[in-house]
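Cross-check.
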Amino acid sequence: MDLSSIISIIATLAVILIGMWIASEGALIMFVDAASFFIVIGGGLGAFFISYPLNKCRKFLSVLGVVATSQDLEVNEVRPVMVSFAEKARREGLLALEDDLQELDDEFLRKGIQLVVDGTDPELVEQIMRTELEQIDQRHGFGNGAMLHMAGLFPSLGMIGTLIGLIVALAHLDDPDALGPAMAVALLTTFYGAVMANALCAPIGERLSIKNEEEILQKELMIEGVLAIQAGENPRIVEEKLKAFLPASQVMSEEAEEEEG
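Predicted model, tokenized:
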């Protein structure tokens, strides 16, 4: 579970609620309006379902769950795993790797090693792994794009609600008691739309984008490592190859530690 994402979302909403509580002197009920809620939230979700086919909408919740989950292996954790596999393959042969397959939590890496153990042609191994990588990228790209699309929908629905509230207010200029509720709808719909877009949808979309970039980099490292292992390359060469996928700061830190050692 990615606690940082969950904590960040909760903290953002908490800060907004605290600000609302302070501004209203504890009367948070003034920020609750059923008409505004249905216009913004209901209208936004309705527009979302119009934008995407039903099968895509069903996948959206599973993709959204990526925000709250962490990867089985981080990029800097994959390299020692690949080096250990390279050492074992060099020492005992590729077939010996089959004994360790069940210990791998990452399905993508497990499939790659299984292809190598089965004696699949190296070009075919790379083709299969890169095809699966493209599917992962497209699936995550859909989630990111959908969240950013919703970030654009909610403010638009908020503007529609504002226009509705203004129309109602103008229609009751001779009734002061009706102006307050109408103006509340006009302002609260804009407020709801802004919160949904800027406090939830846009940040979640950006987080999905970052997670996708991290996973693509991780999977690229795995592909390079699997092909190097299949080619029987020296574990030291494998390690140096995979260093290229790590942040420069981490590589420099490791080199400094090696020099000190």
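Residues 1-32 form one domain. The chain is about 80% helix and 0% strand. Passed to J.P. for a second look.
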